[in-house]
Amino acid sequence: MYYVLLALNTELYGAEIMNEVRRIYGGRISIGPGTLYTMLDKFSSNGLIKRTNQSLTSKSYIITDEGRKMLREEYNRLCTLISDGRAVMEVTK
């Protein structure tokens, strides 16, 4: 979820989203079309992304302001987890 929203800071269509997620994540994960389009439908219905273009062969998407807000909240949550982990790991060296 996090990486798909990161990728959609730029308008992309399905295959481009999959490639961008793979690039951002350093190739450690890949998302298949079924998973991606299920997520895109859910994100769209929740107002996190919007469809910007639709042709017979592709649909383009981009993150909304609400999606950016949620992405920022998730980023802050992850930073807190890292900070907490760092504090514990420094103590247990």
What is the compact description of this entry?
With 93 residues, this protein is of the alpha+beta class.
Sheet with most strands: strand arrangement: 1-3-2
Low-confidence stretches: none
Question: Structural class from helices and strands?
Answer: alpha+beta
What value does the average pLDDT take? 92
Query: What is the class in the CATH system?
Result: Mainly Alpha
Main beta-sheet strand count, sense and barrel state: 3 strands, antiparallel
Number of domains: 1
Helical content stands at 55-70%
- CATH homologous superfamily annotation: Winged helix-like DNA-binding domain superfamily/Winged helix DNA-binding domain
In CATH, the topology is named Arc Repressor Mutant, subunit A
Shape call = elongated
Question: Under the CATH scheme, which architecture would be assigned?
Answer: Orthogonal Bundle
The SSE order reads HEHHEEH
Radius of gyration: 16 Å
Q: What proportion strand?
A: 5-15%
DSSP, total strands: 3
Report the end-to-end length measured between terminal Cα atoms: 33 Å
Q: Give the count of helical stretches.
A: 4
Itemize the secondary structure elements and their pairings.
Elements: H1 2-7, E1 12-13, H2 14-24, H3 33-45, E2 49-54, E3 59-63, H4 65-91
Antiparallel strand pairs: 1-3, 2-3
What does this structure look like?
It is a single chain. The chain is α+β, with helices and mostly antiparallel strands. It has one domain (2-91): Arc Repressor Mutant, subunit A (Orthogonal Bundle). The chain is 61% helix and 14% strand. It has a three-stranded antiparallel sheet with strand order 1-3-2. A hairpin with a 4-residue loop joins strand 2 (49-54) and strand 3 (59-63). The longest helix has 27 residues, at 65-91.
